[in-house]
Amino acid sequence: MKRFVILLAFFYLFSLSAYAQQYIKVLIPKSLEKSFSEISEAFYNKHNIKIKYESNCSGKAAKLIHDYGKIIDVVVSADYSVIDNVLVAKGFADWNIKFAKNEMVLGFRSDSKYAKNIDKANWYKILLKPDVNVGLSAATNEPCGYRSLMVLKLAELFYGLNGFTKQIVDKALFERKSDLDIVKDLLSKKVDYIIAYKTYANEYGFKYLELPKEINLFSARYGDYYKQVKVEDFYGLGLKSIPANCIFYSVTIPHTTQKRELAVKFVHFLLSNEVASILEKHGFFVLCEPEVTGNVDKLDKVLKSDVKYCIKF
User: Fold this and answer.
1) Which region is the signal sequence (predicted)?
2) pLDDT by residue (tens digit) across 98-157?
3) Which domains can be identified in the chain, with CATH numbers?
């Protein structure tokens, strides 16, 4: 009887241990925080697997793996080129799947200075007015920050405005703040205008002006046009510069994972219609045909049915 009780206790503890191991670690960009709380809950309800996620700027997320070998099961990036150029190109992951898009907009409040008069024809003139306060997130830390600079440089090119970028940066509330911090600055009336993701306007309820397609980093049709402008290497990963490109969110499974089967299950879920509905509710544009780059021969079998276009480089 005593032996039976001991065996029963052993199997009970073993089952608890096995249950406790049912989680994965995921790095996500800050712009996915709100939607990801819903995604992780839906994944848990469906698979009984918990997601321990940490939001970080995409460049820092790559550094955690590239420089420190942090044990992470899935990496989601707001800039697909970070995964392509750092994790895949340097052997820390095999492939990279683009699954969603975003765009840059000019955010403001109804009581922001000149809000009643601003439009696509004069927005850059209003930003230059001495009494207008502009907020920019820290370009050294995250895609939203360096994309803000790209937007300014593209506006300079599109409208023929020599020195426009420098003028805005010089006058902006340009501190080491995250993109979410400048959203708070806008809502608390510290600034009148910010350059930020359209999804933030959807999630936090501020007004926004859509920028021309030649500037907003949304349209793949203008990919070559975007590449005319570059910013310095803000990843801190040895890249000389970052050319402007269309905003694609992407996902990979780094070699640091210790739970590949669970990680694959999550990526498969991330590419599902259920998650697409969540992302669209938050304002993201979801790709009907996710694209994979890298060593596509090593793409996990379960995921091959999720990907429509495979591109090798």
Assistant:
1) 1-20
2) 999 999 999 999 999 999 999 999 999 999 999 999 999 876 657 898 899 999 999 999
3) 23-102+247-311 (3.40.190.10), 104-232 (3.40.190.10)
